[in-house]
Amino acid sequence: MKRSMVRTRFAPSPTGLLHVGGLRTALFNFLFAKNQGGQFILRIEDTDQKRFLEGATENLIKTLQDFRLFPDEGPDLNSKFGPYIQSERLGIYKKYSEQLLAEDKAYYEESEAGRAVRFKMKKTGVSQMEDLVRGELRFNNDLQKDPILLKSDGFPVYNFANVIDDYSMEITHVIRGEEFLSSAPIYAQLYEAFGWQKPKFVHLPLILDRERKKLSKRAGDVAVEQYVKKGYLKEALLNFIALLGWNPKTTREIFGLEDLIEEFSLEKVNKSGAIFDITKLDFINREWQKKLQIPLQDDRLFARACELLKERLGENFSRPLFELIWPQVLERIAGPSDLEEKLPEFYFYFALPGYSADLLIWKNTSKEKIKSNLQLLRDWLQQASLAKYDAKRLEEKIKATLAERGVGTGEALWPLRVSLSGQKNSPSPFEIIAVFAQFEETEIFSRLDRAIDKLSA
Question: Which residues contact 363 (CB under 8 A, 6 or more apart)?
Answer without folding.
Answer: 410, 411
